[in-house]
Amino acid sequence: MIGMAGCSSPTPEPVPPRPAPAPAPIVERIVDGSFDFRGAIVQGGLAVGQAPAGAVSVTLDGEPTRMDAARRFLVGFGRDAPGTALVEARLADGTRVRQALRVVPRDWKIERIPSLRQTSTPNPDYERLRTAELARIDAARSGTSDATGWTERFAWPATGRISGIYGSQRILGGVPRNPHAGVDIARPTGTPVVAPASGVVVLAGPPRLSLEGNLLILDHGNRLFSSFLHLSRTDVQVGERVAQGQRVGAIGATGRATGPHLHWAMSWGDVRVDPQLLVPAMP
């Protein structure tokens, strides 16, 4: 037998890997959709919205609004908001789902006193003080926590006679004053104030502020804040988490106040909303 030493099979050429198929292009579609809302779509109103399944982002009039894992988000409307708004969700496949909202107008309590003119003399020292105070307030509301109070049903922080309402305005000598941006509850000094919903304390005195007095601000999450003005004292500290119904302070007359009362204001981002629309009728 003749040996076959030195002979071998040829080495096969390597097969190059097949390129991965290109992803299918996203084709944008715009459709009319249905969002669910809980709340008031009115001037001064705030509502919790529910985005459609598959939504990855939501905008209100082109501005992004935060959405949680359950696809819930907030929409808010100022005192002088226009009569229409557009909410839009973008789905993962590129579809945009739109819904037009009708923002219901409201009648405001306007008090005109033509004979009364209010004048003021510029005070540089006060202006410097006020600039620093406003910076402190803005800093407190500059972030947002992971609190979920914004999804809760709000409760009154105190009960009593309503002495001032959101949106009311005085016109003195033909010059409009700033509209009232919250609701006032008249009660004696020392009356407890409780958290209307859970949140995180982001500002609590001292020092007192020139207009607001002892000011307390709660972050309810998703850029929604409650502010409590003119308190006689605060019972919580910055960074503290509070539950709905927990005592946070007491009514007073600190700052620029003519008598003891609680001024409760709410803001969603830069939008001032009406707290009274979020709570049941005053008991």
- Most strands sheet: 8 strands, antiparallel
CATH T-level topology of the largest domain: Glucose Permease (Domain IIA)
Large-scale geometry: globular
Helix content: under 10%
Number of domains: 2
CATH architecture of the largest domain: Distorted Sandwich
What name goes with the CATH superfamily of the largest domain?
A: Glucose Permease (Domain IIA)
Q: Helix segment count? A: 1
Distance between the termini: 113 Å
How much β-strand is present in the residues? Answer: 35-45%
Q: In terms of structural class, how would the helical and strand content be classed?
A: mainly beta
Order of helices and strands: EEEEEEEEEHEEEEEEEEEEEEE
Average pLDDT, all residues: 89
What is the CATH class name of the largest domain?
A: Mainly Beta
Count of DSSP E strands?
A: 22
Given as residue ranges, the uncertain stretches (5+ residues, pLDDT < 50) are 1-7
What is the gyration radius calculated from CA atoms? 28 Å
Summarize it:
This protein is mainly β and 283 residues long. It has two domains: 30-102, Sandwich (Immunoglobulin-like), CATH 2.60.40; 110-278, Glucose Permease (Domain IIA) (Distorted Sandwich), CATH 2.70.70.
